[in-house]
Amino acid sequence: MLLPPIKQRVRDSFERAAATYDQAAVVQRQVCDRLLDEFASSNRPFTHILDAGCGTGYGARLLRARWPSVHITGVDFAPSMLSIANRDTDACFAADIEKLPFGDSSFDLWWSSLTIQWCDTDRVFSEAARVLRPKGRLALSTLGPDTFSELRLAFSTVDTHRHTLPFSEPDSICDALARAGFGNITLQRKLHTVYYPDLKTLLRAVKAIGAHNVGEGARSGMMGRHAWQKVEAAYEQHRQPAGLPASYDVILGYANK
Question: Could you tell me the EC number(s) of this protein (predicted)?
Fold first, then answer.
């Protein structure tokens, strides 16, 4: 699987993070739970579900519990993640969700939790529409622009480099879904905050889930001691009784083909 250099670095990060992912992915599990909670009232009898960006298979386990007889296919571009997800899916494929290795109209439900932020949404949704059957459903979670706002502010005190991904606005996600031909689009947005005792612990948690690649514009060299102390001091301005906050601007999306 040939990937662009930026996406290759992201895949390499997730490859290294597979062993630590499940222990560290507290937010990811909670978001996945919410995605299903808002969707599980559907009484439609799905037969084939695609988990696009399945990671280690947490979403597949939730889907299996909700629809025990469904056939679940997992796709992820990190083979080490798939080696774990294989226990909870009926089939696994190492592939980019922007170019799926399936025929047209193969699935009843296209499901993806906290994956599309690494991708070109137009390509992802075009592929989702292609592999979904007529009247198929789409359910996704992703992160909005207020994610890691505290981190961006703290690092802005020392440089102008990018230190987080350029997360999408809800309107741009909605527009991309409409361009791909989806209808009945519904988006929900809610801020989710996690607290850490200090900045180093926060950054280690982000690295443990492989989410520390930020694409173009990232700092290329190591940060000096003085700069690091300045960042820590800036982040301390956000401290609350529970600790240092890390904000996740969670977006849930649902649509019909």
Answer: 2.1.1.197
How sure is the predictor about 27, in pLDDT bands with cuts at 50, 70 and 90?
A: confident
Of the CATH numbers 3.20.20.370, 3.20.20.140, 3.40.190.10, 3.40.50.150, which one belongs to the domain with range 5-145+167-193+248-256? 3.40.50.150
Q: Domain extents for the chain?
A: 5-145+167-193+248-256
Residues 6+ apart with CB under 8 A from 57: 51, 74, 84, 85, 86, 87, 88, 89
Q: In what order do the strands lie in the sheet with 244-256?
A: 91-94, 71-76, 48-52, 107-113, 132-143, 244-256, 183-196
Predicted confidence at residue 104, as pLDDT, reads 98
Q: What is the pLDDT of residues 127-144, one digit of tens each?
A: 999 999 999 999 999 999
* Least confident among 82-86, 154-158, 167-171, 188-192: 154-158
The pTM of the whole model exceeds 0.90: no
CB environment 40-60: b (16+ within 10 A), e (fewer) = eeeeeebebbbbbbbbbbbbb
The number of beta carbons lying within 10 Å of the beta carbon of residue 102 is 16
CB proximity list for 173: less than 8 A, separation 6 or greater:
121, 142, 187, 251, 253
DSSP letter assigned to residue 168: P
Please give the DSSP secondary-structure letter assigned to residue 224: P
